[in-house]
Fold this sequence. Notes:
Elements: E1 26-30, H1 33-39, E2 43-47, E3 50-52, E4 57-61, H2 64-67, H3 73-78, E5 83-88, H4 99-111, E6 114-119, E7 121-122, E8 130-131, E9 134-138, E10 141-145, H5 163-172, H6 174-181, E11 188-190, H7 220-239, E12 244-247, H8 252-273, H9 277-287, H10 297-304, E13 305-311, H11 317-330, E14 333-338, H12 340-354, H13 360-381, H14 386-394, E15 407-410, H15 414-419, E16 432-433, H16 440-453, H17 458-478, H18 491-507, H19 513-535, H20 558-570, H21 575-586, H22 592-614, H23 641-660
Parallel strand pairs: 3-11, 4-5, 5-6, 12-13, 12-15, 13-14, 15-16
Antiparallel strand pairs: 1-2, 3-4, 6-9, 7-8, 9-10
Helix pairs in contact: 7-8, 7-16, 8-10, 8-16, 11-17, 12-13, 16-17, 18-19, 21-22, 22-23
Amino acid sequence: MILADDGSAGYCETRWFTPWAKVRQVEDHRLPPCISQVTGQTTVPFGDALLVTSDTCIGFEICEELYNPESPHVPQYLDGAEIVSNSLGAYEEFQRPESAVSLVSSATMKSGGCYLYANQRGCDGGPGYYPGEAYIALNGAVVGRAAPYSLREVEVVVAKVDLESVRRQKALIRSRCAHAARSEVYPRVQADFWLCSDADEGGPSIPPFPTPLAITPPPPEEQALSGPACWLWDFLRRSGRRGLLLPLEADIDSSLTAAIVVRMCRLVVKAVASGDEKVLSDIRRIVGQEDYVPNENRDLCRRLVRTLCLQGEGRSARHLALAEALAKDMGSRHTTADLSGAVRAMQAALETASQVKPDAASRRDLLSRLRMSFAFLCAQASTKEEGEEEEGEKEKGNTEDSSGHLLVLTSANCDLLASGKWVKFGHFSGDVNLVGRFPEEVVKRAVETATHSLALPSLADILHEHEKRRRKMKNCEEGIGEGREEEVGKGKGREGKGKEEVRKGREEVGKGEEGKEEIKRRERERKKQETNEEETGETKEEEGKEGEEGVPDGAMSMEEVALFRQLQYGEGCGPYSMFGKLCWLWGGRRAAQEIACKVKTYFRNYSNLQHKICNATRTYYVPGTGPLEDARPIVSSAKWTWQFNAIDLAVQKKEKQEETK
């Protein structure tokens, strides 16, 4: 009777269904002959009613009805229902896994009753993951639950309860009794059978009260690891692909994707060890070996996963070593390739055709797109290693798909997508992105968790490099940094010069405003010099996450982008309301003009990026981090005339107020 239509959460049920609008009414629905011939029954009551057995009364609600302010279970419990069942299909929501438990518990606590809550599990062909939550609640306590993050397709949860305790609970809440006396009556559908066993007639003994279970919701980093791992398994086994190809960039995004793959392998090994024949059958079909039994994580990872690290101009040996170390910890088959020659060939072709030499940003974007193309080439042309190829010859008749293509995984967190520091159709493109709905802070914490829980020590070194890079960027933004990472033989001198200039500027701060202006002037000159050097190819390239033309780099830190994204998607802010909230959040730490500049930059990027987001690799979907699933226009004006003018007027007003003070 109530359907889910939250577009930002990915639900659009009214596209397929029409809600039942006749409250507390039923109609006779004629049965097809195939059923009538078996049951001898020609019609069945259909509508809003309660099911009455010889010993209890059962009510029903579906999915969104539990989350609605006027949930059907409330009048059903008041009109005598003792058990309410809810079968639903709800995605796992980011940082809200406890909502179902709290709603189910409060429903039975206020009205007295038993509640059966059963969610779908796995992937239904879409990007969302159904976590398979199943709870049995009794009088405000959860007394049964399903295992979280399991690969089992079907799991039955059982709890033995005494319905007399429900009746006592109802009778003890006197205000509920008074309200129930005035409730409207539901139609009853009679079912002539006994649901309960009778302990007085030799039935099984019934405990006075089942032991309540303590439900601890998983932290966000666990959601970022286990949810995508379970979804990836469903995707892989249904896609017909023969394994996974993961480009490693030695950054936290691709590292989290690697950790998710390792978690998936562990779940598969655990499921097979517990006797899950369906998982065993699927993994044998994927690897193409009838007698294979996965009993070790690294061995399974070696058979399923190929990792790839691609070199280019300015690619540091440190990052190549980190990627190789992570691949070794995983146990995957690792490949390194150099694309510098391809970049030079493309550059030479452009110069021959148009007499134009591409700048550094264009070369970086070209390298990024070549990485993507090379990754798909490897996925399509991948061959088995020598030992596996001989085994595969014996199993040719067992394979459903002889192409041997691999599923290409890509990695870009939602803050990175929102900031615009990525390349359309570049190396963030692939078949699926497992981390595209998680903020960078959650990605970092998930990598920290995986370092120990998944025994991947190389992740600690990658985190160290990430923090080092972030500190350098933050220092540059604050005007006290040492610039970007220097090139061997040249960078050290520039770094020392930058330190000396900033030190001199600090000494002049005591002289008043002139000293502050001197720091800013020198910092601008040094940044300009570094930018000029970078354009001539004299400095190290940024690690593959530069924006396309029109998206200014360095205008906002990733922390600021995360805050802006949360205000836009979580609080529903446009430019003007976001400016007002930031003025309150940042107080006197930032000038109004600076805040206005950052807000304008963010929304200009938002408008310029809409066409890119629509073409970005489909991400593993978890509601709660931004409406990547909605139907936004692919083009809109980036001027935001009314909103930006309102911000300018507000800035002028604030500056006048400060002058009067």
